Amino acid sequence: MQPIQLFDLASRQAEWLTIRQQVVAGNIANANTPKFHAKDVTPFDAVLDKSDIAMARTNPAHLSGNDFSNSGDIDVKDAALDQEIGVQESGNTVGLAEELSKSGDIKRQYDLNTSLVSSFNRMMLMTVRR
């Protein structure tokens, strides 16, 4: 029997979401700080590409999986410049509307992550009871 990697994947995404929420909160906290440059983390796809979680192809009609190496660092980097906000007079590049939108997206992803893990856990418990 192969190990179930959904819990590993969910844990990795929760870790990524935690770091992203910290970065977004830092951006919001420094929205009025002169010469502060907004930051963001690498997309989860890039983090997943570096992890040791390999997706298996169980049916020829399914998408093919990738081979992932074992080094999953989450990088924090300067965010791309928001064309709507640009660089403000103070040199700050934080756009509050964009940061609040990211925060809402993070919450939705957390909710989805916990719902999937909860459903999968219930499914696993039902199979064990039989």
Automatic annotation (TrEMBL):
It comes from the Bacteria. Keywords: Cell projection, Cilium, Flagellum. This is Flagellar basal body rod protein FlgB. It comes from Rhizobium indigoferae. The gene is flgB.
